[in-house]
Amino acid sequence: MKVYISADMEGITGLVDAEDVQPPGRDYERGRGLMTEDVNAAVRGAYAAGATYVLVNDAHGPMRNLLPDLLDPRALLIKGRPKPMGMIEGLTPDFDAVVCVGFHSRAGTLGVLSHSFMGHEIEDIWLDDQPAGEIGLLHAAAAAYGVPVVALTGDDTACAEARAWDPRIQAFAVKQAKDRFAAQLVPVTESRAGIEQTVTAALTELPNVTPQATHQLTVRWQSASVASHLLAIPGLKKTDDRTITTEGDMLHLYRLFNLYLRVATAVTSNPPYC
């Protein structure tokens, strides 16, 4: 069984603030260790369920967060950026399941460090007219490969968002959101045990997925300048000064969306999201 792990940071055990997840934050280095140990718990869970191959993609911010020397040696690691497929770089139809570790809820929700990809710059995303964030887009892109997302860890709002997309996802909350930068934490030892057990349980019976042929992706930006620049890409339409939309197969849209992020970063210098 081949298992793919996409690892974000905002939903990692014990982390609640930008200082925890953004270099050069005063607690960022400690956050990297906590992130690595949450991923290790997921790797242990995967191998306990019978995995024979585990690939981990560092999917947060600079994508150089996980500590290779502390990562479970049974897992392979994709590190760094840019990556054409961003948070699902390296995922192929050969994988049996996707596990999401350390995820957060979409922009506009009262979840810990909630945002959608770029923090301030993306106000809203809709996939087929349904509000979406990183969880929803990743779920749809994995389905386009024919690979199910089976487990997710993060705060309680991220877990609820994942189950809303697919009730079959087994989610484990490592903290309960109190506000955007505050949470009640699950004790570290208990959290890692819960991650491991959740991943093992999720991999014991894999669901089937049926990819949708065509999707519509709509993004509303904070800046009209970003939308204006993106209109140079063929096939994009503007619905108002800050909103662009396009249609296509999900893998094309996911790759295209990662191009949006690079254009938006160049236009705005990607200010901190808090």
- The CATH topology of the largest domain is what? Rossmann fold
Integer average pLDDT = 96
Number of strands: 12
CATH architecture of the largest domain, by name, is 3-Layer(aba) Sandwich
What oligomerization state is this entry in? single chain
What is the H-and-E element order? EHHEEEEEHEHEEHEHEEH
Shape descriptor reads globular
Domain count, please report it.
2
What distance lies between the first and last C-alpha atoms, to the nearest angstrom? 39 Å
User: In DSSP terms, counting alpha (H) and pi (I) runs of 4 or more, how many helices?
Assistant: 7
| CATH H-level superfamily of the largest domain | Dipeptide transport protein
| Order of the strands making up the biggest sheet | 3-2-1-4-7-8-9
Strand content: 25-35%
Alpha-beta content class: alpha/beta
CATH uppermost class of the largest domain: Alpha Beta
- What would you report as the Rg, rounded to the nearest angstrom? 17 Å
Helix content: 25-40%
Largest sheet data:
7 strands, mixed
Low-confidence runs = none
Description:
There is one protein chain. The model has no long low-confidence stretch (mean pLDDT 96). With 274 residues, the protein is α/β, with parallel strands linked by helices. Helices cover 32% and strands 25% of the residues. The chain has helices at 18-21, 28-48, 134-144, 156-165, 188-202, 224-230, 250-268; strands at 2-7, 53-58, 75-78, 97-103, 122-127, 130-131, 149-155, 170-179, 182-185, 215-221, 237-240, 243-248. The strands form two sheets. A seven-stranded mixed sheet has the order 3-2-1-4-7-8-9, with helices on both faces. It has a five-stranded antiparallel sheet with strand order 6-5-10-12-11. It has two domains: 2-202, Dipeptide transport protein (Rossmann fold), CATH 3.40.50.10780; 215-268, no CATH class.
